[in-house]
Amino acid sequence: MLLFNKSMTTDLNTLPNLLTPDDLASFLSISKTGVYRLVEKRQIPFFRIGGSLRFEKKDVLSYLQGKRIESV
Q1: Checking DSSP bridges between strand 47-49 and strand 18-19, what pairing results, if any?
Q2: What is the pLDDT of residues 17-42, one digit of tens each?
């Protein structure tokens, strides 16, 4: 079950606090495999709840901020 999908607005206030891998893939515009790659390399914080992965919204935003490249 998707908590967030592409038909929803990408306004940060509408994102749930915990995102599924599908939610995160949609939000970052990457594949689900790409999400699992980030997890495998421990590049993004995650929770494992009953065998399922979840990502906290604030952690995702921190991850994005760390990837930001400033203009010159």
Answers
A1: unpaired
A2: 999 999 999 999 999 999 999 999 99
pLDDT of residue 3: 52
Within-domain flag for 38: yes
What's the whole-model pTM score? 0.78
Nearest partner of 24 among 35, 8, 9, 11, judged by Cα: 35
Range of the structural domain that residue 31 is part of: 16-67
Residue 55's alpha-carbon distances to 33, 48, 50, in angstroms, are 15, 9, 14
CATH at residue 39: 1.10.10
